[in-house]
Amino acid sequence: MSTVFNWQLGRDMDFPYGAAYPDHQFAFIFNINRCIGCQSCTMACKSTWTFSKGQEYMWWNNVETKPYGGYPQHWDVKILDLLEKANPGGQTWDTKKPEDRKAPYGKFQGQTVFEAAKLNVSSEGAQKALGYLPTDEEWAGPNRFEDNPAGAAKGQKGKYFPGGETLPEHKTWFFYLARICNHCSYPACLAACPRNAIYKRPEDGIVLVDQERCRGYRKCMEACPYKKTLYRGTTRTTEKCVACFPRIEGRDPQGGGLPMQTRCMAACIGHIRLQGLVQLNPDGTWKEDRYNPLYYLIHVAKVALPLYPQFGTEPNGYYFPPRWVPRPYLRQMFGPGVDAAIERYVNPDRELLAVLQLFGKDSRICFRYEIKHGPKIFETEIHGKKFEQYNDTIIGYARDGTKIIETAIEEPIHVRDAKHANSI
Ligand code: SF4
Ligand code: SF4
Q: Of 55, 59, 130, 385, whose CB count within 10 A is highest?
């Protein structure tokens, strides 16, 4: 084991390989508050990458209904349970002294999947990452428990809260959790592969499986805590999300040579997704890039949080937590930054409101934004705090400086001529 620094945990941790980081890292943000569970992303991915024989049950992108849904079934509950058994009562955070960028959420005091694995010794030796291999049945339904909410009270099956729902927490609740491979900085799939078939690209941090080297031992499936490597029976190899790498490389003809967001991001009906390439420092922390939208949302506004950071893989998928969901559930899923993130999201300041407009506006990757100030158009109070809205304009630029987005906060209103009132 080597020692590497995991900024999401605010500390060093054990990892089977020494530290090595790409120049840029593929990363994305999903705003769960806006996901409508339409599965357009899922189908955009399926029709691009997994429509062939042997891939029938393979969903690189999936959207599951929490708290009961999961693909594979109960994947996160099972990993959390294994970690809890390995370190009973110890999976906690010290949030007293968060330091910017080196420990934005505080310091994780528990054990990661790599650290807890040392104790999990079988006849094959210790695991590289604590995990389990899902059964075939668990992979069978990507959308089981769709739209099933958690009930108002424990043990009262089928009973909803009768009093009407109000924020900050709904009594009867569910939410859609859209997921793809997180192209982790410390991939458990890569760590566990006995064939060294999994690699992380130095130019963009995308994690890929070399199909020539893979022998289908499924150690990656056992190790990935997010269960995002999938077995293909017809080739007897593992396949996974490839981050639509030809688009990232600017090879999709539609992008005119500019890097484009993945198919699932571009197809998103709810405009919940924003994907980019962020610059890294030699120690793996994010290079300060103040006007990159992902840098701003994750490191400055801190409204987007990693999914299960305590697993220790340093996932590069980030989420705006759903604001109506009970906080203990969200803290377990996104770490201790949840309360502050929701507070900022429900009452956004001028810059945050402008940056939120970048989601879903253009398929090309936005590397930088600037904001042109406009007049104040609205004022109110949100949860006891003053909220002011300005009609600012945000402009987004591609990697080569091409302007790809220009949009104002206030949407223009077009009044249809009375003589065309009923025509399309
Ligand atoms: S999410 Fe899983 S499959 Fe993807 S890079 Fe991380 S460990 Fe590997
Ligand atoms: S396309 Fe967007 S809104 Fe629809 S399910 Fe996927 S992430 Fe959610």
A: 130
